[in-house]
Hints:
The structure holds 3 protein chains of 3 kinds. Chain A is built from 17 helices and 2 strands. Chain A is mainly alpha-helical. Chain A has 2 domains: 2-54; 76-302, MetI-like (MetI-like fold, Orthogonal Bundle). Chain B folds into 2 domains: 4-224, P-loop containing nucleotide triphosphate hydrolases (Rossmann fold, 3-Layer(aba) Sandwich), CATH 3.40.50.300; 240-365, CATH 2.40.50.140. Chain B contains 9 helices and 22 strands. In chain B, strands 6-7-8-3-9-10 form a 6-stranded mixed β-sheet, sandwiched between helices. In chain B, helix 2 runs parallel beside helix 4 (136-149) and helix 4 runs parallel beside helix 5 (166-183). Chain B is elongated, with a radius of gyration of 25 Å. By secondary structure, chain C is mainly α. Chain C has one domain: MetI-like fold. Chain C has 16 helices and no strands. The longest helix of chain C is centred in the N-terminal third of the chain and has 37 residues, at 21-57. Chains in contact: A-B, A-C, B-C. Chains A and C meet through helix 1, helix 3, helix 6, helix 7 and helix 8 of A and helix 3, helix 5, helix 6, helix 7 and helix 8 of C.
Amino acid sequence: MTDAALTAPKKHAANPRYGSMSRDRTWALRWSYFFLILFAIFFLLPPIYMLITSLKTSAEISAARNPWWVFNPTLENYRELLTSPQYLGYFRNSAIVSVVVVVITMLISVPAAFALSRMKFWGSSTLATGVFLTYLIPETLLFLPLFKMFALFNEWTGIQLINRWWVLLILYPTLTVPFCTWIMIGYFASIPKELDEAALIDGAGWMQTLTKIFIPVALPGLIAATIFAFTVSWAQFLYPLAFTTSTEQLVLPVGIITSLIKGDVFNWGQIMTGALLGAAPPLIIYAFLMDYYISGLTAGATKG
Amino acid sequence: MAEVKLRKIIKRYDEVEAVRGIDLDIADHEFVVLVGPSGCGKSTTLRMIAGLEDISGGEILIGGDVVNDVPPKDRDIAMVFQNYALYPHMTVFQNMSFGLRLKRYPKAEIKKRVDEAARILDIKELLDRKPKALSGGQRQRVAMGRAIVRNPKVFLFDEPLSNLDAKLRVQMRTEIKKVHQQVRTTTVYVTHDQVEAMTLADRVVVMNNGIIEQVGTPQELYHSPKTRFVAGFIGSPAMNFIPCRMEANGDSLSVRLNDGLVFPVPAERVARYRGHTQNGKLLLGLRPEHITEAHAHLAPGEIPFEARLEVTEPMGMETLVYFPLNGTQVCGRVNPNAGARDGAPLRLAADLNNMHLIDEASGRVI
Amino acid sequence: MVDAVLQGVQTPGATRKRSSLRRTMQRKSTVAFLMALPLILMIAFLVIYPALYSLHLATLNKSMERFVGFGNFLFLFKRETFWKVVEQSCIFALTAVFFKAIIGFTVAHFVHNVPNDRQRKWRGMLLVPWVIPPAMSCLAWLWLFDPSYSAFNWVLGIFNIGPVPWTGDAFWARFSVILVNIWIGAPFFMIMYLAALKSVPDQLYEAAAIDGANWWQRIWYITLPMMRNIIAITALFSLIVTFANFDIVQILTQGGPIDLTHVFATWSFTLGIQGNDIPLGAAVSLFMVPILTVAAVFILRDITRRGNES
């Protein structure tokens, strides 16, 4: 059936093809740009609207004028949030949690990935598959048993885990470590075997091979994994919502939602400002390290 | 510097024996090439010497010490890999000095050694570059430099030229030979390319199916192969093998190629072949250069015959001619002016002074 | 001259005593095991154990003192809300993944058409929804959907349409959560497809063009078959993530109106954390397992198959 489709129009089209080929391309390009602009509007509308709203006063927001235009731009919302100890507290909690989770994640996943990709031991291939499966288990399946486990832990040891921001340091690695280990296995596996043999002959031990050869060579992968761990920790919503409640223990996403929305009073100017500032760190990282970000994104499915 | 001895080396992967009991003595300063088709066990043998593979049986001695259980870094060897295995994040200088730095040599000593190696290999101006910025030949030199600075007892080369294009390969071959003449380190070199083996080696070790077929100087292997495998593996184009029978007529012997073609065996070989007149499975081995156009005056042992050429391949300085004989395709090398044409007959001469007689059943040269 | 080098320091390694290679090998696997140990412990205590523990929890009564067997499940089967949640979860996941895949493929194609030097810019712009933390962007959508100040309704008002009850009405609330999910997820598909499109060799298209294939035939006979693998695996990944999604529904509708937009994740949160009935919440969340398992099995099969090929 392929043949029929391919051979039929050939004869008639043979002659005018040459001229129309480049015209076809020009039109294809125009249409591409047209649709890309439409999609870009769709994709960028919410963040742009965040920015527009964040520059408005409450009075302007509640006046039913054109919501897509800022008539009296003001930075008042930014000033208020950035001087609010509460909001800065959320920001600080988020930053500490994310950075520490990145460190924990790397300390767990890089040596594990090295061991799994290079130093076969009993059950190592099963474990590699297990790591991948773990990555597929969503947090929405685990938060209730974990919540109960931590409550029981409190009963037994007297150590309070729930409603402490640092409980997130225990929880977030379950989301970041499996994926980071998995993509690091992929990056390590792409390093030719001769390289570690050369290092072995040069007299490097396993640890030296890891720190002096593998980590520097797989640095792009390491950066991609770091970015992933950071953005996942920064964006996580369910765990902090379930495990932390007091204002001073909250991280950014939950903080904005629970404290800026007071009952039915929505201060949208501040909410949008807070959300925009909260979205800023991942966006800035993305802007500067886009290629690493994207390679980490595609690595999960294409490596291994 | 040291000699390397292999004693009944065996390598087993699960059920498969990749190396099946190899004995080999490599003298100090010697350049030995292991050659054979892929899967013959040559690389495995080299990797066992390096310590990268476990030894399933036998002993390996370097400089008189059994090194079976010594980890690679303590065997005092250096290895050059097929894909060079240069550390991509280090400069050439760092690549070459990595081993010395790990062993905490003094800085001045490291610099002296790297500079010396760079001088030998003519890569002084590349020391600050990263491997990515080097050409294939330059990477090859750096890989060798990394081996030289270590000043090891033994150099191991694992198909180091396979990734280079043909022209560069010839050039680097000479380079490796020059380096060896300067540093005189005992060298074990693995390749599948018989030309590389012949040109580089003091002694060539031909391997097949996990065993050694023959060890000898390039000349020995070329002129007196001991097995059909060696005879066919060494030399290009390969030796012709033509089924034949040995016939006695009185005191003399002749080789009968079934279709009425009979070559008398030169007198000095009669004694050697006399016992094989009853053997029905013999092969006549003749290298292409010993089948040439027939001159007006034939030397003793050169036997003329007619052949209808199927294909001719002009190579410039000679022409390769192919014709069917006794069910096999036979190759000869003739003068380009001998008038060889596709499909045309040509009067050829076989030089039986250089004949080999092979017992097909055992594969051994008689 | 070379001898100068050779007479240098004797390598310290040579003098070191031998150790058994066998022992080294054993040590190697021990070292490897130790390096992987934190990972193993983490997976065991914070993933495997809670996963099994939730099975146990689901069989307890609300105060978690008494074993009720399948009691929680039977209770759920009798509740209309449960079946609504099942229905909505499936509609939510399947519709969203379908449109994410279509939009992602289309956009990837358009980006691929653009000259190479401009692709980076477009790609960078179009991935922004994926980069913004979902909780933050959902707030923006919530504000765009605001019942009295919706910026969308203002635009529609110009054309005398609406106002649309974006989150107030059952149909529109379902539409809205799916729309936002597509908005967040389509860029991910776009990136994956773009990477796959780039891996199709140009010669294939040139050969097809010479054979007389038009653009649609080129997509149908070359692009799609070449990308089949990546399309399938991206869709399966997305299916898992979408099916288990929590943020979008929680922020936009919190399950309302009248529980019609609840998915398994949000309902189990409502029951378990807010309603303080952890066993019932765990029972609800366990209903995600079958579909997750099916998707995981297919993904795993694909990955091991590719592992074998290489």
